Amino acid sequence: MGTAYLYGNGGSGGGLNFKLVGGTTEPANPKENLIWIKTDVAISGYSFSEAAPSEPTEGMVWIKVGFSSIIAFNALKKNCVQVYPVSVKQYIDGAWEGMTADISQGGQWKPFYDGYLGSSVNNLGEPSFVVLGSGGNCTLSTKTFTQNEDGSFTVEMKNSGSGETSWMNAACCFPEKLDLKDVNTITIQYIVEAYRLPSSGVVVYLRVNESPTSGASLATQTIISHTTAKNTLITKNVDVSGVDGGYLRIFHNFANMAEGGSYFKIKIIDISPS
Amino acid sequence: MRTIYIDSEFKCHITNDGTMTEIETDFFDGKCDAFVEGYMFIPSGESRTRSDGKVFHGEMIAPWKDYAELDAAQREYEKQLIITYETALKKVGVVV
Q1: What is the ipTM, given to two decimal places?
Q2: B66 contacts on A by Cβ (under 8 Å)
């Protein structure tokens, strides 16, 4: 799945517009697009690719790329090869390990995060839909997850029951756990395209474990209420300063509308630390 | 559903000192008091600015204490609940 985007085994030169170094101390006075990986294992080579290199050598660095990144850069000095780095891993003792890494851009160090950075499409995994309870003739008739070409994704869920007062909980559950150890805030950018909701809303939950039916919820942020503007870019933050990690859920407590059931369609532009 | 109270910093409390806002929520169902009081609750339509300048809009519910500490308190609470139930069951002759 995917192809190697860039491969190398050295620093800059040869027309490259970036450099990759390892070490336990962050370099002083870095040049633009210097990537520093906090490691005491010698870097034997590197690969920018969507999928992990199939034949890694000890010390190899894999920089996962996606469709968008808040630390995107042009990899070449003259022509343009735009790179969208997402996370950094190094092959140590036969396994890929998530690494602490920073890139110098605009005079600042900007961090990579093992787990996710930028577009959630590339990092949170393919979600599943789970109905957590039901009543009456409620049915989750629509449950779609669409990856868009611009790196965003769209979730649509619909409860088609009508004429009843029963309800159910349903969640779009992402399988990859977010590493939030050095993260105090998650920022969610989204556009609500459509909804028909009662007073209950749609929330983003962080859960302790992957199972949506057990375990505790760590934090929530309401992303759609019955008064949310449609077709408008919205930004919401979640304070995760007390949380080390969690699984993301988009959750709706569906209540039956008088006619036609309740539903929503939301385009998530980005979920990232900030 | 449970009634909690939030202070001016949106921190949760289980009792009202007379200045707090009453909130009904099911987020804390089954949770012990120590767990509840480690959380903040920002109601819809309100916002909180953290000391670093980050703004959070409601409705948002998140721990302001380290979750590991809250989790430890909740596990101890549940352990004591089990002991209480087992004791009660034994008194009526149920073997647990």
Answers
A1: 0.90
A2: 242
With an 8 Å Cβ cutoff, is A222 touching chain B?
Answer: yes
DSSP codes, A96-158: EEE--EEEEETTEEEEE-SS--S-GGGTS---EEEE----TT--EEEEEEEE-TTS-EEEEEE
Distance from the Cα of A226 to chain B's closest Cα (Å) equals 11
pTM for the predicted model, two decimal places: 0.69
Contacts of B46 (CB under 8 A, 6+ apart): B10, B57, B58
Please report the number of interchain residue pairs, chain A to chain B, with beta-carbon separation below 8 angstroms.
63
Do the beta carbons of residue A272 and residue A86 sit within 8 Å? no
Instruction: Confirm if A224 and A264 have CB atoms less than 8 A apart.
Output: yes
Q: Mind listing the pLDDT tens digit for each residue in A194-221?
A: 998 877 789 999 988 877 767 788 999 9
Decide: residue A70, CB within 10 A, 0-12 exposed, 13-18 middle, 19+ buried: middle
